[in-house]
Amino acid sequence: MSKAESRKRAAQLYKKALVWDDHSGFDPHGGADLKNLEIWRRAGVHYLSVNVGYDVVDWQATVKTLARFRAWLQTHPKKYALVRTTADIRRARKDGKLAIAFDLEGMNSLNGDVNMVSLYYDLGVRQMLFAYNLNNLAGGGCHDGNVGLTPFGRDVIKEMNRVGMVVDCSHTAYRTTMEAMQVSDAPVIFSHSCAKALRDHGRNIADEQIKACAKTGGVVGITGVSLFLGENDTTSETFVNHIAHAADLVGAEHVGISLDYAFDAENVDGLLDAHKAYWPDNEDYGRWPTSYVPPKQLMEITEIMVQRGFRDREILGVLGGNFMRVANEVWK
């Protein structure tokens, strides 16, 4: 297939796809300008999960961020839709709106209380991971001791399964992830993680984790952070290398996209300096200025998948169908 033919085919598939970005890098301290959501809408993204809290901030800050983000979305209904169900996502796409729900990076946001899960679900949180890089009450972080799932973490999984919140294993220690995937009764995801086999970094995941995720019926979302893709690498070729690696292991139906794009990268690098424990120097944090694959690059990524011989149904799944399938199964 010529370049012109692959470009044309990619454009057709991208137009047909439900494009799903499973995690964005909005500043969860609550200062982010949500007008930047237009970056995703203009790039043709139909659904975006927006981060509203992580273990670095306290749970009160998470609640305040949720309040502000919800209010902003509800007062900008022409372009954006705060969704509760997958039917809402389909409706938003039909209406030309960007569908939004929220995610939490770490269970410190629960303040040690499993009852907080249903509250966050009612406020629009549709996925939550265990520990942001460091250990917490629920389990181990990927840059800390490789501990397992705690009794509290097990209780949280049970409650997440009950209310319909997706269990997420990104940023989490290997042992905790493997135990969580055994405990959960619903599909488990790695919302934004790259393959350790291609880039040996503590934030990336081993082939055994990818296989275990697929066994639950879940999806691994490839992330666009330069440090995790390679050594300061945000090329579409490298991004597709990670997609292809996971697809070769478990099938393309278990792979998705989760860019973790941060439009305010300077603020992110400032956070690294202020909270060194979460981003240790021995993992190369701060070695290069952080860069990201932007949403506008998704079309080129699609074109490369076409060139590499991915089937149409596989591309449509990676672009969003696979995460939509998990949401259809888990959300309530």
Describe this structure in words.
By secondary structure, the chain is an alpha/beta fold. The chain is built from 13 helices and nine strands. It has helices at 3-16, 38-42, 59-74, 86-94, 116-122, 151-163, 174-183, 207-215, 226-229, 236-250, 265-274, 298-307, 312-330; strands at residues 20-24, 47-54, 80-82, 98-105, 125-129, 166-168, 188-189, 220-222, 255-257. Strand 6 (166-168), helix 7 (174-183) and strand 7 form a beta-alpha-beta unit. Helix 1 (3-16) packs across helix 12.
What's the SSE blueprint?
Blueprint: H1 3-16, E1 20-24, H2 38-42, E2 47-54, H3 59-74, E3 80-82, H4 86-94, E4 98-105, H5 116-122, E5 125-129, H6 151-163, E6 166-168, H7 174-183, E7 188-189, H8 207-215, E8 220-222, H9 226-229, H10 236-250, E9 255-257, H11 265-274, H12 298-307, H13 312-330
Parallel strand pairs: 1-2, 2-4, 3-4, 4-5, 5-6, 6-7, 8-9
Helix pairs in contact: 1-12, 10-12
Spatial shape: globular
Distance between the termini: 43 Å
Strand segment tally: 9
Mean pLDDT score: 95
**Low-pLDDT regions:** none
Tally the helices: what do you get? 13
Main beta sheet strand tally, sense and closure? 7 strands, parallel
Query: What share of the residues lie within helices?
Result: 40-55%
According to CATH, the homologous superfamily is Metal-dependent hydrolases
Strand content: 5-15%
CATH architecture: Alpha-Beta Barrel
Order of helices and strands: HEHEHEHEHEHEHEHEHHEHHH
How many domains? The number is 1
Query: At the third CATH level, what is the topology name?
Result: TIM Barrel
* Radius of gyration using CA atoms only: 18 Å
